[in-house]
Amino acid sequence: MSKKRGLSADEKKIRMLEIFHQSKDFYQLKELEKIAPKEKGITMQSVKEVIQSLVDDHLVDSEKIGTSIYFWSFPSKAKNAKKRKFDNAQVEFEETAKRLKKIEEAITLESAGREPSEERNTLLKLLDEVTKRESELKIEFQKYRDSDPEYIAQLKIEIEELKAAANRWTENIYILKSYIKNNFQMDNEIIDQNFNIPTDLDYIEN
To answer: Containing domain of residue 40, as a range?
Structure first.
């Protein structure tokens, strides 16, 4: 039997954020060390590290009140943090695109009826650097989206809805097979063959 895979760093952060967003409450570290293992499967030893990572990413707020440190995060916190990063990246992307266009125009102008020059070589080198940066920014956009807790949570909801719909159709097929079998005395194998029903048809559980 294979050993159960542990949670990745991103999975721990997503589940930890769920504790805050679902309760909309304030917690001390010792409270989270009790709640996280029980409700989200995060080991007690890694709770402090996960919380600190979320604080560093500006997804969780913290404040010392008296001798105690409290942590909290509302759903809008994560959304605003991601939007701020995305907006900054988008501004840089647009500026890079404008710069790229100017460089391409300059290269076209320099190339018209002229021999290769040092200035042209410099522009070509700069064009290559800007093009690479543009590609990096596109990858950065996708990374933000893939690590967005709200986006992942929405995907989970959609997956559950699709599973429920598939199971409803499976249930309808079973009901139809039972009706045909009882009223027309047909074997399951013949029903499956005539209606192109997979022999391994079953409910989706995981």
So the answer is: 9-73
